[in-house]
Amino acid sequence: MKNLFGIIILCLILGCSENKPKEKTSYENKYNILDVSTFRELEKNIRPLMVLSAGYTSVVTQLDICDIYESTVEESKNKKTLKEVMASSLIKCKFYRELYKEVIPNFKTINATNLNNYFYFNYSNEYSESSFTNIIGIFSNEAKCDKFKDNFLNKDIGYTSNCKNISSIN
Description:
Blueprint: H1 2-14, H2 26-31, H3 40-75, H4 79-85, H5 87-109, E1 119-124, E2 135-139, H6 142-154, E3 159-160, E4 164-165
């Protein structure tokens, strides 16, 4: 009995307790942080498609902005002056409308097996925050990519990288 009492006292003093799961920090609790280490292997295959999704979003968003610009000009009482003020924006809109016609069909046909057949380029302009989201593509061949990259530069929309194969995103 003395031994049992001694063991209990010793456990209390040394802090013996059942194996409790490690407590999450308040930050982890607040934001429900997940352990994403299991996604590392999947990331190699998913990243190009995620980047392309960002590129798609960029083109479609730019078209929405162009719709606003163009409708503003059309609804204005002083169209001539507004066209002059918005000249550079309207030039960009023309570029993005041509780009849309070229790349949107490719977004409909791309998949994991034909991913390596397409090209893109990165860009930077005065509104750029991240090069990750600044992707223009997907082009069915490098020559088409180069043509649009050159147009992007010639119209002073921003700076670009060279055209790259989508497989280089990994």
